[in-house]
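Input record (one chain):
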Amino acid sequence: MDARRKELGEFLQVLRTRSQPADFGFAAGSRRRTPGLRREEVAQLIAISPTWYTWLEQGREVNVSADVLDRLARSLRLTRSERAYLFEMADRRDPQDSQPEEDAAPPILIQLLNDIDVPAYLMGRYWDLLGWNAAATALFAGWLDQPRASGDALPNMLRFVFLRPDTRQFLVDWETRARRISAEFRADCRSRLDEPALLHLVNELNEGSSDFKRFWKQHDVLERQGGERGFLHSQRGLIHYQQVTLRPVEHEHLKLVMLRPAR
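The corresponding structure, as predicted from the sequence alone:
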């Protein structure tokens, strides 16, 4: 038996036995021999046959659709982590992954930025900067220190790199950095490539930058990595940092980027 199908079956059994029948509109009764819901009750909740659901719990080689998994996750009121685990064990893509979420940074993360004494900022799913600290403002002078009126678009890292001519002098080895940033962005947005907001941003970058258009068409894909980053600052001259990117567990669409002075 495939290990992943076995894990899925055992996971479904645990979900079923921990569920209280009364919470789902079924009579508890004294005739139940085991705790939790019966298999046929779960099957009824997610609108599939009891036999087919039984096969899932037994780890048999059956194909379960993302729609069925979605109904199961909703019906049994799974947590976000449980839902992700369910889809991973079933080797299916969660349709919720392509649904836009609120792209906002929790206040605690914004406060955390102010406790960091090196340049640090938070990026959202489309690489808008949702917050940054004073050290980042000083590093990105001429960009993050500009006043913003209510309703103005947030600063965006892709627009900064590709649509501002002065960035080519500011980023050391701009060509290499820009190519990598394009590849990292494609990897980061791989499950959201059909979202209207992302399509709008990509179209804007394609129209405004022949370099971005060239890099984007190459379909390079790279996970975001750390490493040394050089900047030619207008007042401080050439400075180097080690970049570190972290993802908060409860807000995986956010990226906390920190730039530690290189030694």
